[in-house]
Structures are given as C-alpha cells and as structure tokens.
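Question: Hello, beginner here. Any chance you could explain the protein record under this note? Any guidance would be welcome.
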Amino acid sequence: MRVLGIDPGFDRLGLAVLEGDPSRPIHIWSDCIIPPKGTADARLAVVHATVVEAILTYAPDLVALETLFFSTNKKTAFGVAEARGAVLSAAGEAKVRVSEHSPGTVKLAVTGNGRADKKAIARMVPKLVNLPPKKRFDDELDAIAIAICALSTQRPAR
C-alpha cells in the first residue's frame, strides 16, 4: 500500500509518501511546502494544487491526515481547518480514499506513547524510516509519522 501522509497547515504543509510493510515502511518522498504570504484564498489554492500534484505524481492508495486538534489559538485552528478542507477537496477530486487519525493515535503508532511530544516524534521517525539526510521542518516529520500510522492501521482496499 502507498500512503500520502499530510500534516495540513495554512502556513506550512507537510507531505510524505511511504509504502510497504508497516514494520519497515519505505520512504518515497517528503517535503514541507510553505505557501507564499498573501490572501487566504491564494494560500489555500497552493495547498490544494500541491496535494493534487502529489497525488498525480505518486498515485497513493490512501491519503492520511490528522484529525483537527483544537488548541487555545483559534486563529491557528481555523487556518488548519481550512487547509484540511483544501486537502480533502483534492483527495475527493482524485477519488483517493482518506483516513483520519487523532494526534494521540499517531503518537502512539510512532513512539508507543500517545502523549509524546514533538521531540519524541522527531527522534523516532528516522529510526522507523530510512530518510535521506536533509534538514526537515516538524511538519514534514509529522506527515511521515501520519503515513506510518496509516500504514500500521489500514488494510488495502479490495
């Protein structure tokens, strides 16, 4: 199974394509996209177009993303919700199955602790997936973690 993991965001969009066995997933590609500053509609158009391009390029069987976590910062939550809408729209357009995973489920799948912090995710992801060396934003590592979680919890469509 090939999974496109997405950490949706208005300011930064983490994407990762993994495939294979959940015990040792294979990293195909990952990146963090930073939409240019501007109007909300222009930024969300970049999010949508980026996801469409990733789907066309990597032909995933599944798009996986985190469920929305409501924090105290409502402005951030609204931006993430809007970005999630752009992601879901792109997946729906391409007729790719979507799975959603809570932050705790992703943390549990990657670290064994549903309350792990970002540093624990950053430490564990390279132990679970062979990654080419480069500097990565947390958003990219989170997208890889989401894809790992999806591989470990999903069964291929028949």
About this structure: The first strand starts at residue 2 and ends at 7. The longest helix spans residues 74-94. The domain at 2-153 is CATH 3.30.420.10 (Nucleotidyltransferase; domain 5).
